[in-house]
Amino acid sequence: MTNRTFTMIKPDAVANGHIGPILAKINEAGFRIVAMKYTHLEPEKAGFFYAVHKERPFYKDLVKYMSSGPIVAAILEKENAVEDFRKLIGATDPSKAAPGTIRNLFAKSIEANAVHGSDSDENAEIEGSFFFSQMERF
Ligand code: IDP
Ligand code: MG
Prior knowledge:
Number of strands: 4
Number of helices: 8
CATH class: Alpha Beta
Order of helices and strands: EHHEHHEHHEHH
Radius of gyration: 14 Å
Shape: globular
Helix content: 40-55%
Largest sheet: 4 strands, antiparallel
CATH superfamily: Nucleoside diphosphate kinase-like domain
Bound molecules: inosine-5'-diphosphate, magnesium ion
């Protein structure tokens, strides 16, 4: 499954009407949508998803933000998916994200930065399995 990545369109981007434009960028970049879900994370689930960051000073706010409204979760497929998707979304801090990247175009701040993208093949598999059953990921 090394040709897959996991993404979320985060609450700010959903609230600001950016689902359509972000999905268009994803399609234009050649990703196939394997599975997709419109959902709302409870704080416990957002905390679990970002558990790797629990010692970071921004963790509490991040959990609050990620559970503040609906999100879109999706598994995407393309050759070299993880690396290519990180390039498509741009740097964590939108002020440092390259022109034309999703975060450059749609992010509000370093926290409300429009989209998530997995950072490794291993995490792509783990994160996708939080949201989608084996059948949905098949
Ligand atoms: P990434 O999403 O680009 O992989 P990470 O370092 O994994 O960035 O951080 C996870 C998420 O935590 C970010 O996407 C962003 O929403 C939030 N975050 C990261 N750094 C900061 C910060 O310095 N202040 C506030 N929120 C942050
Ligand atoms: Mg990360």
